[in-house]
Each structure stands twice: as structure tokens, then as C-alpha cells.
Amino acid sequence: AGLLEVTVDLGDRDYPILIGAGLIGASQTYERAPAGGTAVVVTNTTIAPLYATRVAETLQRRHARVLQVVLPDGEEHKNWVTLNTLFEALLSQACDRKTVLYALGGGVIGDMTGFAAACYMRGVPFVQIPTTLLAQVDSSVGGKTAINHPLGKNMIGAFYQPRLVVADLDVLDTLPDRELSAGLAEVIKYGPIADADFLAWIEANLDALLARDKAALAHAVKRSCEIKAWVVGQDERESGLRAILNFGHTFGHAIEAGLGYGEWLHGEAVGCGMVMASELSARLGLMPAGFVDRMRRLVERARLPVQGPAQLSAPRYLELMRIDKKAEAGAIRFVVIEDLGRAGVRTAPDELVADVIEAHTA
Ligand code: NAD
Ligand code: ZN
After folding, report:
1. Pocket of ligand 1 (CB under 6 A)
2. Is the pTM of the predicted complex or chain greater than 0.95?
């Protein structure tokens, strides 16, 4: 697979997503990011020993100096304390406005580094180098950055776009199987919401994706990024359309919150949530029953759960969904499939939602 490129079209803030093998260690990769000044590679304790040196050595050729900041690994560290250690590193090393931050890691590193870039000296440029499949197809694209607060996930953040996204397929070789499957959940998501042909392509190529075949991964990442870029290009700040990216997420967030975050991976909860959201689409008369079977089979083949955890009751889901929505004050809104490749947002009666959950619970 040669070098693929997708553009995120945001007027004067356009940026490229580069997709291919062997990218992180090639200096041409970074040509369209600002050079000179200080480069700061922000990464974590798991990724640093695997990839940080290769990135840092490559950036030496473009920047006056290259620093590394290694943060602890884990969603539980996506908070103010960790962000502050990053700010302390930047300030103590006299990083000025010409500093470029490079987020080398999964969604946690990407979200934190992006938010730090939005805040540090009122904004310095940053580059996303996503190292999980989930980050390559979702979190590194679109400019949502955030940290968690004890009272809510991703509640403190900013919209702040990167200058460049580098999706190197080779780094996925070291990704744990469970994380690969979690990323596939977000890939699968793009089919029913935006592209029926892509859904069929995923079905035909799932085994190659699970085997980490580079050509298959290249196409999956490219098509996912195209769809995400298309949505974000029309609705950068989620005033409408961007909500369709949350297909499966209303059910999924309830599972994550109900079990305690970290019990199921986000993508696992989204996989099961997509089965439930497909069922809801069928029960609302929008899609045929066969669609639910099709989605369930695909999610299962991706080695993701298709049944909600037995310990979570339907009333508990509804309660959690209402807490999740509290900030917006209103009814629970579900992303449903209206036609293969087209999504919409609907409300639904509690009893119907409860039936849907019970139909897909162990
Ligand atoms: P993650 O960043 O926690 O990475 C998962 C695990 O894989 C970590 O332990 C990480 O160290 C490890 N890892 C990463 N790359 C690796 C590699 N190449 N080889 C070996 N191990 C590797 O999780 P994630 O799934 O990438 O991201 C989840 C985060 O993304 C959540 O915080 C979520 O809120 C956020 N998110 C943000 C957006 C957005 O639009 N900003 C969208 C979706 C998710
Ligand atoms: Zn998601």
C-alpha cells in the first residue's frame, strides 16, 4: 500500500491525514507541519520504548531541539494532574510559541496533547501521530480535545484542530488484540451511518483486518477518515450532523458507566451498543429485522461483545442515559439507521428502549 491522503476541509485550517506504512521515521512525512523551534513528543510509558526514539530522531532534522515528555499510561490519567506535569515540562524547558507538540499515542495521549496545545501560550500547533486503530480512524481527526473531570468524562476541553495527522499502519503491529477489535467497532460504525458499500467491504475483509493485513488496514483507515472528515467539515462543533458519529454510543456509554469505566473498552461497549441501536432502528420500523442480524454477526466476528452485561438492568441503562444527557437537559437522543448508509437522531419511549436492551442482554 502506497501513501494515502485524506484532507480535512476546514477553510483556512485544512489539514492532511497521511496513511501508510513506515511513516513515523520518514522526514518527508512531517513536511507539512511547522518546522524550526522546539518539537515536543508527548507520549506514554508503553509507547515511548516502542516508537518515541524513531519519531524524535526524525524530528531532529526539522527542529532546533526535540524534547520528550512521557506521561503515565491509562484513561485514569487523562486529567488535570497529568496535564499540569506536561505544562510544567514545557515551562521549565522554556518552550515558546514556536513549539510544536507531537501527540504520539492512542486517544488518551491525543486528547490530552491537543488540549494542552490549545491552552499553552494561548495555542501552539500540534500534530497527531495516532498509534491505536481507534485513534487513527476516530479520535485523532476532527479536533475534539479534552480531559476528564471526576463529575464527567471529556467535560473539560476545546475544539482545536491539528496541523497534520500521521497514521502509520506499522505501529498497529504491537497493538494488543483487544485494542484492535475495539478500534474495529468504530470502523464498522462508519458503514451503516454513511456508506452501505463500505459496510459490505468490511464484511468481506474483516478477516484480513483481524490479521492486520496492511492493504486492508490502509483502506479501512482511509475510508473511515474520509467519512469522519466529511462529517466534521460540515459540522465542526457538533451543532447537528456530527452527532451521527455517536451511533451505538448512547447504549455504549451506559454500559461503560454502569460497569465502571475500564471494565469494558470503549469500542467493546460501542460494538454491543451498535447491535442495540440497530435493534432500535428495526423496532422503530426504519430498518428490516435482517439488518440487526447482519450487524450482530459482524460485531461478533470482530471479536466484540454482542450482548449487554447481565448485571445491568434496562432501568439502570435508562437512568445512566439520563445522567449522561443531564448537561443538555432534554430527552435521550438515539442515533438510528434510517436507511443503509444514512443515520438520523430520534427519541423513543422508555418501554421500547427497555425491550431493545433486554433483547440483547445475556
Ligand atoms: P488509549 O489511548 O488508552 O490506548 C489504548 C492502550 O493501547 C493504551 O494502554 C496504550 O498505551 C496502548 N497503545 C497505544 N498504541 C499502542 C501500540 N501501537 N502498541 C502497543 N500499545 C499501544 O485508548 P484509545 O482507544 O486509543 O483512545 C481512547 C480515548 O480516546 C478515550 O479517552 C476517549 O475519550 C478518546 N476519544 C476521543 C475522541 C475525539 O474525538 N477526541 C473520539 C473517540 C475517543
Ligand atoms: Zn467512540
Report:
1. 44, 46-47, 50, 73, 75, 78, 105-109, 111, 131-132, 134-135, 138-139, 142, 144, 154, 171, 174-175, 179, 182, 266
2. yes
